[in-house]
Design brief:
25% helix, single chain, eight-stranded mixed β-sheet, alpha+beta, 30 strands, 588 residues, 19 helices, six-stranded antiparallel β-sheet, 23% strand
Length: 588
């Protein structure tokens, strides 16, 4: 185990030790002192945690989402949940942590609002007050889970928060983070962004030794590893636990007197650090959360780093020798907001550059450039500027459509897409249109958009995709379909063009993407474009109809039934999976 203590102000990526552990020593406090109102009480011998009000309707949410239970000939057919119309990879969650601010929970609430795009189906905040960890979690948007009275129940100077995307199910609520657990030395809360690829084996080992799990989330494994560790002090328990984890994790931990931020050695998912004017320290998944609560961005939490914040200040520890970073390139393509700085780069500038490359490498005669909102807008602006063609708002997105909506008994073609995207006839009629989107996953949404544009009179529709073709599932905290469901894994570009009905189709090439990133290109993960995984999924791979997230819903039996065994020795070559063969092997 290689551990080093250095000042956060002096840390650079090259400062990480890769061998020979050095003794941990306390560091000086931050350059600006923490708020004088911060009170540090003696730790209780056995602190408790309190869980407050939760959304009581969570257990029936799935009732209206199960198409299989709805008859087309009844009034219940009015309820529709067409996931094909939201055909994008989905980021699993966003996290925030705040230390040393008397309004920590309210600031966490605002930060979660800024991170709402990273997860819309569950939210929670844990705060510390009088050495007690108090929690409020619920199903829904941040504004639906929290109100004034609930935030009043979360006083304290330290807080962590979490927003998540989840598959529907009766166990959804219990998987909403942050999680809080009590063990023999106190209580700890955790919020996690990512996915552990060795979750199943770790859980089996812990259960073999007597651990009892309350959720189906891989994050709970981390709490069990901390509780069973014999290392002292507390942050060494985190280090010891993380050394057993494989996969993606950007996590914030909370105790009675400490805030700890951890990022996996590959740095798959983002995590940044900032500071408010009163000296309080803030961690968040994206810088847009720092902007809203007026925290100044300082730096990323480096891959393989543990940052411990307490009354002594901020200490930086090296979790373990780490390889080349493999940050998720999809953060710049789709997940993050354009106004965020992610992995040290402007998301806006990246997307604009993607569009410019498309215009250079895949030009086409056209009259107007439009975007599939919202994630395609910046790339479309880049394409239009480079091509010298006007950009116009040819598709208007409704931001008020929920995941479940009422559909008339008389079937409307492409109903889900029409609810969310409305074409502007004055912009499109009689025009040769270039449509810029960030990605194509199954191809179902793209085909409906092309049809929608032609129905209002577009003369030609040319699709331009600001990312390479997606041929592999993600196992590092992104909800993507199985390999067999990814259209680019089954069809050539020309076959996809025919399937979606466009007049032409072009993707950003992976070579152009790497060239744009320059010397940093080796520090990104391209597994979804290449099928080559930095950390091989061990033992389990996705199959048709499955979803993988940081909190799998349903019983363990349903989880096991929804996976296909992989070859843990040789890894998974996503381009050569034989689904029928894999299913037979799974049931053998």
């Amino acid at each position: 185990m290689a551990i080093a203590a250095v000042s956060t102000a002096a840390v650079t990526p090259s400062a990480y030790p890769t061998s020979s552990a050095t003794r941990l020593s306390p560091l000086p406090p931050p350059s600006k002192p923490l708020s004088s109102s911060v009170v540090f009480s003696k730790t209780l011998q056995k602190p408790i945690h309190v869980t407050l009000a939760k959304n009581p309707i969570s257990d029936i949410v799935a009732t209206y989402k199960k198409k299989s239970s709805v008859s087309k000939n009844t009034d219940n057919a009015l309820f529709s949940d067409d996931d094909d119309d939201d055909d994008k990879p989905r980021e699993e969650c966003g996290v925030v942590g705040i230390y040393g601010d008397p309004e920590a929970s309210r600031l966490s609430y605002l930060a979660l609002h800024a991170l709402q795009h990273r997860g819309q189906e569950g939210a929670g905040i844990v705060a510390v007050h009088d050495n007690v960890l108090q929690s409020v979690t619920g199903v829904g948007l941040v504004s639906e889970v929290f109100n004034q009275s609930k935030l009043d129940k979360l006083p304290g100077d330290i807080a962590i928060g979490h927003v998540r995307y989840s598959t529907a199910g009766s166990s959804m609520l219990k998987n909403v983070q942050p999680f809080v657990a009590g063990y023999r030395y106190g209580s700890v809360g955790v919020a996690h962004n990512g996915n552990l690829v060795n979750y199943q084996s770790l859980r089996a080992e812990l259960e073999e030794n007597g651990s009892i799990f309350n959720t189906t989330s891989d994050t709970e494994v981390v709490l069990h590893l901390i509780a069973t560790s014999k290392a002292r002090p507390f942050f060494m328990r985190i280090v010891e636990a993380c050394e057993k984890l494989q996969g993606a994790y950007s996590m914030v931990f909370l105790t009675e007197d400490k805030l700890v931020a951890v990022r996996d050695p590959f740095g798959f998912r983002p995590l940044v650090m900032g500071r408010r004017s009163n000296g309080s320290v803030v961690f968040a998944s994206e810088t847009c959360a720092l902007d809203l609560i007026e925290a100044k961005y300082e730096r990323e939490v480096y891959p393989g780093e543990v940052l411990v914040v307490d009354k002594e200040g901020v200490r930086s520890l090296c979790l373990m020798p780490h390889p080349e970073p493999k940050s998720c390139i999809f953060e710049h393509i789709y997940f993050s907001l354009p106004n965020s700085i992610v992995f040290g780069k402007s998301v806006y500038e990246s997307r604009r550059a993607f569009g410019e490359i498309l215009a250079t490498e895949s030009p086409v005669d056209c009259d107007v450039v439009i975007a599939v909102p919202d994630s395609g807008v910046v790339a479309a602006l880049g394409y239009a500027a480079k091509a010298g063609v006007p950009f116009q708002q040819g598709l208007i997105r409704s931001h008020y459509v929920g995941r479940t909506f009422i559909e008339p008994s008389q079937k409307i073609r492409d109903f889900g897409v029409k609810l969310k995207l409305s074409p502007v006839r004055a912009v499109l009629e009689g025009k040769r249109v270039v449509v810029v989107d960030d990605s194509i996953v199954r191809g179902t949404t793209s085909s409906k958009i092309v049809r929608l544009l032609k129905e209002v009179g577009a003369k030609e529709v040319h699709m331009r995709i600001a990312s390479p073709p997606i041929i592999g599932s993600c196992y590092y905290g992104v909800d993507t379909p199985s390999t067999e469901e990814l259209i680019s894994n089954r069809m050539s570009v020309e076959e996809i063009r025919e399937f979606i009905g466009s007049d032409s189709l072009a993707f950003l090439s992976i070579d152009s993407l790497r060239k744009l990133l320059g010397n940093d290109s080796k520090n990104f993960c391209y597994a979804c474009f290449s099928g080559k995984y930095p950390v091989e999924p061990s033992g389990k791979v996705k199959r048709v109809g499955d979803f993988l997230d940081d909190g799998l819903s349903g019983s363990m039996e349903s989880i096991d039934g929804g996976w296909v065994s992989g070859n843990s020795n040789k890894g998974v070559d996503v381009t050569k999976l034989d689904l029928n063969k894999e299913i037979k092997l799974s049931s053998a």
